[in-house]
Design goal:
The structure is a homodimer of 166-residue chains. Chain A is of the alpha/beta class. The first copy, chain A, has a single domain (1-166), classed as Rossmann fold, CATH 3.40.50. Helix content of chain A is 28%, strand content 13%. In chain A, the strands form 3 sheets. Chain A has a 3-stranded parallel β-sheet, covered by helices on one side. A two-stranded antiparallel ribbon of chain A has the order 1-2. In chain A, α4 (89-99) links the parallel β3 (78-80) and β4 (108-110). The two termini of chain A are 23 Å apart. At the A-B interface, α4 and β4 of A face α4 and β4 of B. Chains A, B: Pfam families: NT5C (PF06941). Chains A, B: Belongs to the 5'(3')-deoxyribonucleotidase family. Chains A, B: It comes from Paenibacillus psychroresistens. Chains A, B: GO terms for molecular function: 5'-nucleotidase activity.
Chain lengths: 166, 166
Amino acid sequence: MDGVIADHLNKHLTLYNRDYEDQLTFADLQGKKLREMAKCGIAVQKYYQDPTFFRDLVVMEGSQSVVKQLQENYEIFIATAAMEFPLSFQAKYEWLTEHFDSIPKSNIVFCGDKGILHADYLIDDNSYNFKNFKGKGILFTSPHNVYETEYARVNNWQEVAAMFLG
Amino acid sequence: MDGVIADHLNKHLTLYNRDYEDQLTFADLQGKKLREMAKCGIAVQKYYQDPTFFRDLVVMEGSQSVVKQLQENYEIFIATAAMEFPLSFQAKYEWLTEHFDSIPKSNIVFCGDKGILHADYLIDDNSYNFKNFKGKGILFTSPHNVYETEYARVNNWQEVAAMFLG
């Protein structure tokens, strides 16, 4: 969800720069998590504890239309590691039902360890989610993962479409 | 979760009998869902829409100690079909962290279709959850399922212990 269909990083960076009077850009985050570059370190995760943080995220470009196309040939589930931020449940659910109403509620999964998912493919921006996953992991490009080479990679939703519908 | 480690039925029946001046018992529910026997029919599901309904459910007898014993030999996940009742997320999460603190948050799953779970076994009181599940389904006895014969059955947590640790 985050970093694949929901753009959490733009909002996170904007809030951080505002509150800490910093000017970090996506270029500064190549190969780094925001918490590694932020003046406040791990405390930058506090924004995720705000129950409203995930409610108004911008939809990743092309994700809605490509998901709908994929649904014609594949069974699509949306999984999100929500257990790290339990206050986010309601906002994430509302965001999904607003922006991805083609996904039935039965196909939404809030989990922790994504190794519990029984699926052929997992598109994710965090490669650690592939560790216990039994299907094929596909890395969705995000600044923090640009130097990783171990997994198949898609840079955007057009490339997802090309991979699965091409 | 519900009907396996959390006793939702006792509370549901008590609230229904109070509000509809009825005297339904577990004996009346043999082979039936409450919504089939309730004067109000499917409207009896309204109790699940109360965000607090799932917060104070009684823990099923023996479940805590057997889950802990199982964890010595198995990786245990708790999965619940929470997507049907999105207002229940917070209460279910709080209940789990209160009563099953041996389960790491990473092993909690809120889902819909349990076919998404990658596990060897699924202990559940609703046999429809086994339909898309690729592992072995084990039916946990509840009044509504007593006449079902298609799946392996456990009547209580002592029988779960005997099956997996015996």
